[in-house]
Design goal:
The protein is of the alpha/beta class and about 425 residues long. Helix content is about 30%, strand content about 25%. Bound molecules: uridine-diphosphate-N-acetylglucosamine.
């Protein structure tokens, strides 16, 4: 089991490059199945969830190999199966994204139910009803999804809420459907645009990503391509929050402010100076932040739920109080008890959490409860006096290539140790 040892209390200074986006590369890896060809993904982050996706692809008869630091070459010509084992499904909740792609390529798919995760229940009812609308027969008895589609037929699908995963799954299935599919009330996240750009590079006709209506003209044969994955906006938000709370000046290469403008708006309101251009984002902070207006998580372009814990960690020493409202997931305040061990003052009541700024945080032994909650502990530890030991860091590895390397590049005193 590895731990992160953080010695906090000093200002940051330096620059770091931002890795490719986890939430972009996972659906793109599923989308490679649509091509029956070779795809070269540049800027592919080396993450536990990427490894899990590679194992799913390999289990289906495809191959994947790393070339150099961050290039992954996937070859899906050998696809021979349409079953994803329960063990692989368990490893990664977003493995449900493979359903649409396998179904489109093979006309059949068998996956176990992804079930819940550390954030609470993670239903996929919208994925399934959309696939049924396209003509799939799905039997979900006994925790296993048996899906069949002799022929998928494009049509209009209206999502009752703008689910990221359902939008992506339906885009992939629609590529294999005859005629045009229109997804109304689609999610508008930048990762959906990245998926559209990837599919377009493979020869698909997809439009509207980034708006609430995505259209796919299906039934075209897709080919391989070389594609560069977009930078990870939540990793960028994490390092901005680290600098905001510890104080100092940092520059994040490749970070794109247009993807995280709700986060930078809050950090500016809290007193940080932020500048961005095509090369990246610069952030300067004096350390102790001001309180900000209530932060409410919402689908994009609202404030991202994935940045809630991280921003909360940055505001623990603010002057005044800040209200958070988590509207996306039921169980997303599990980091609060751990932050309290460092001296934070946070009161949770249902969807709301109120942070009352304290003058000082102190080092403590804390445990990651989930991916972003774990990153939040590192952000808080950088502004705490003394040493913090962060355990159960496997959660962080799901989404950060090497958080210790990146934070060290930004001037932090952080080490990873293996027990
Ligand atoms: C994606 C991101 C995750 C992020 C989330 C919200 C990936 C791999 N993960 O997750 O990091 O936190 O978007 O921005 O991209 N819902 C249903 N039925 C469904 C699907 C979703 O009720 O069939 C609900 C969920 O319970 C949740 C809300 O819709 O309350 C949003 O979920 P969704 O947008 O689907 O998130 P994910 O795609 O799972």
């Amino acid at each position: 089991m590895s731990q992160l040892i953080v010695r906090g209390g000093s200002r940051l200074g330096g620059e770091a490059g931002i890795q490719g986006a986890k939430n972009s590369v996972l659906p793109i890896l599923a989308a490679t199945l649509l091509t029956a060809d070779q795809v070269e993904l540049q800027g592919c982050p080396r993450l536990r969830d990427v490894d899990a996706s590679i194992r799913i692809l390999e289990g289906l008869g495809c191959t994947a190999r790393w070339e150099g630091e961050d290039v992954l070459v996937v070859d899906t010509r050998g696809l021979g199966g349409c079953v994803v084992s329960e063990a692989l499904m368990r490893e990664m909740r977003s493995s449900a994204i493979f359903l649409g792609a396998i179904l489109a390529r093979c006309g059949r798919a068998e996956l176990s139910y992804p079930g819940g995760c550390e954030l609470g229940p993670r239903p996929i009812d919208l994925h399934l009803s959309g696939l049924r609308d396209l003509g799939a027969e799905i039997d979900d008895a006994g925790g296993v999804l048996h899906c069949r589609a002799r022929r998928l037929q494009g049509r209009e699908i209206v999502l009752s809420l703008p689910s990221v995963g359902a939008t992506e799954n339906l885009m992939l299935a629609a590529c294999g459907a005859a005629g045009t599919t229109t997804i109304a009330n689609a999610a508008r996240e930048p990762e959906i645009v990245d998926l559209q750009d990837f599919l377009t590079a493979c020869g698909a006709r997809v439009s509207g990503a980034g708006t609430s209506t995505v259209s796919v003209e299906g039934g075209r044969p897709l080919h391989g391509c070389t594609y560069h994955v977009m930078p990870d906006r939540i990793v960028a938000a994490t390092y901005l929050c680290a600098a905001a709370s510890a104080g100092g000046e940092v520059f994040l290469r490749r970070a794109r402010e247009e993807h995280l403008s709700t986060v930078t708006a809050v950090l500016r309101e809290a007193g940080c100076s932020i500048f961005s251009d095509k090369k990246g984002i610069a952030c300067a902070s004096k350390g102790r932040l001001s309180a900000v207006r209530p932060v409410r998580t919402a689908p994009y372009p609202g404030f991202p739920t994935d940045a809630q814990a991280i921003l909360m960690a940055a505001l623990l020493r603010c002057r005044g109080a800040v209200v958070f409202e988590e509207n996306m997931f039921e169980n997303r305040y599990r980091h609060v008890d751990e932050l309290a061990r460092m001296g934070a003052s946070i009161r949770v009541s249902g969807r709301a959490a109120v942070v009352t700024g304290v003058e000082r945080l102190h080092g403590a032994s804390v445990r990651c409860t989930d991916l972003r909650g774990g990153a939040a502990l590192c952000v808080a530890a950088l502004a705490a006096e003394g040493e913090t030991e962060v355990s159960e860091t496997g959660h962080i590895d799901r989404g950060y290539e090497n958080i210790a390397r990146d934070l060290r590049a930004l001037g932090a005193d952080i080490l990873r140790t293996e027990d």
